[in-house]
Protein 1
Amino acid sequence: MDDLEAVAAAVRVARGVVVLTGAGVSAESGLPTFRGDGGLWRGHDPMRLATPEAFDLDPALVSEWYDLRRMAAEAAEPNAAHVAMAELERHVVAADGRFALLTQNVDRLHQRAGSERVVELHGSLLVWRDHRSGRRVTPEPTPFQTHPLPGPDGGWLRPDVVWFGEYLSEAALAAAASALTWCDLFLVVGTSAVVYPAAGLVGRAAAAGAVTVEVNVAATPAHVDHRLAGPAAVVLPRLVEAAFGNVA
Ligand code: BJW
């Protein structure tokens, strides 16, 4: 609790707040994490499915996995952690502070909870693109009838996400780099902090002088000033309440 009060005090005085989120934030919305207990999907390791090599080898399999996850994301509801982060943004911005939410999540639950300054580091599951031309389409929120689906330019449709070995978009990297120049409080929430370049952001924020805080149910390799142990959906509403009063 002492640490919660110390972090709440840092939140109150911060002029620039940056939050980095990962799959743990959506766990309580029923969406599985990558390295959690969920394990394999039909015998396949999610870490291997999230690669261009898997798509080249078996586009039908990868398309089906992502389409099931797309449907799960559409059906899921933002949880108290998403809501508290949106509330945090409103408080910081209302006090003329700066805010950015850098998310590795592809489920769009932050936006649905009301967060506005969101940078999707790993893209979005709700948008797909022709794997040859790159042209983007937003499919209807109903399951695909076949896998893979033909894209508009003769390729297959693939999710508009960032797979291992692929580059994050320049816009996302630039937004993250810019946020580190004005950030004085960096919160890292619900991520195992092992996938780069996102995992490197907390160290860069600390090197630039920001106070760093981790919210997670388990310890991670991230070096931070404060650790708030527990589910994000419990810890974040408490933190926002301790900093600003009741979460709406
Ligand atoms: C809770 C909770 C609750 C549970 N409350 N908490 C430097 C060093 C070494 C390697 C590299 C490097 N730089 C680049 C690399 C290669 C690679 C990489 O990082 N590899 C490492 C695994 C070693 N990175 C890349 O390839 C990246 N591209 C790149 O760098 O391009 C340049 C380049 C190319 C080639 C060579 C070198 C450089 C791209 C990374 C793309 C990652 N993509 C994925 C899939 C996205 C699409 C999809 O959704 O399917 O992104 S992989 C997957 O991991 C997904 C996630 O966003 C990402 C991070 O996972 P996350 O969110 O942290 O989830 P989990 O499951 O790992 O953790 C959940 C956490 O929540 C846990 O800590 C729990 O305890 C916690 N939790 N419930 C709070 N209720």
Protein 2
Amino acid sequence: MTTTDFGALGLIEPLLRTLRDENYTQPTPIQTEAIPHLLSGRDLLGIAQTGTGKTAAFGLPILQHLADGRQKPQPKTTKALILAPTRELAIQIAQALRTYGSRLDLRQAVIYGGVGQKPQVDALRRGVDIVVATPGRLLDLMNQRHLRLDGVTHFVLDEADRMLDMGFIHDVRKVVAQLPKDRQTMFFSATMPNAVTGLASDILNDPVRVEVTPQSTPVDRIDQSVYFVEASDKNSLLTKILREPAFNKTIVFTRTKHRANRVALQLEKSGISADAIHGNKSQAARQKALKEFTNGRTSVLVATDIAARGIDIDDVTHVINYELPNVAEDYVHRIGRTARAGASGVAIALCDPSEQAYLRDIEKLTKQTLTIAGGEPAEHDPANANQRRGSNNQARGQRHHSPKPTSNKPNGSGPSGRRPKNRKFRGQKQNRAA
Ligand code: AMP
């Protein structure tokens, strides 16, 4: 395949050249479906998770429109506005757009809270082509008259379901109220609960609907397994698992910030380089932890759900759910940190007896039964135990299974020792150049 695939979508040469440099040989499904409609000016409702290539799906058409007959933006205005729920995601989107637009002469600003506002205000003063922002700080700067939205021609709402979960929906509506009616709107969400559907129908105008098919969602490409373990044995099991050399870039998830700190400390004490990332850390500390992890100086990042949302780090080899999330959708988001854009990955859950109900919710949502890597479900949950015994017997043929979690030896290529499944986007570049 060549970049004529991207060319056939109607993209201009400077963008095609950058895609070639980035080694994007073939558009992902959401890019193939969305880009022609977006280039023609339609609104879009995209149902897709992070990792599907959605940033380029909306970013490339916006860049192309803005580059076409570009007029300088007015002071304190922007032409494109992209809203994201977290600062990490905002920074990543901005970085991606900077890369994709590197051959175009466009100005960009990224706006998020938790840091001083002066550099952001300075960046807006002359006016910009693109603003990527989290809603709270954006409203703050708008209220202080550092930015007006009356020049916006392109609006993207990313991860709308997460905006809702994080309580940003009112802020989002306040922002939308300031936008010109005549604009192109792109709306992305991994899930479509009623409130999100309502918001979508309020802000979109006759949108094209693009849903990335289940086969291409990361969950199917991830080798998933579970260890049944007592809560008090989780630390020693985690250390044992992480000592395996294959686990060279692992994200460990906890439910709370406090636990994230404790787990990271415990790992450091055991001689495993680890850092924690969560909402109580300063923006600088979070960025530093991400950088050290990205460049391989720390091999384990311990994260809470919100802090990890939207993290786009290439080559995450494993995701370990030290604690299972009590919201099943979060499991899907968590394990999506591995298996980015076509790569396959490994996800391991450590499930104590109090978490077995969460596990059942997860399996119901993903329509998959996780393979047992070690331990047995607690006896007080007979329904689950019976179901498990069945799946465990099946698994025995494929993998080494031992009944006590502490005696498990995680296999280097993943807990199952199986080869990764076929990839959906084989032959594609899987990493974005830093
Ligand atoms: P996203 O879902 O936008 O966060 O993209 C996930 C990852 O896929 C990022 O690291 C992108 O650089 C990468 N990516 C996006 N589109 C492509 C493509 N067509 N070929 C290869 N990698 C891609």
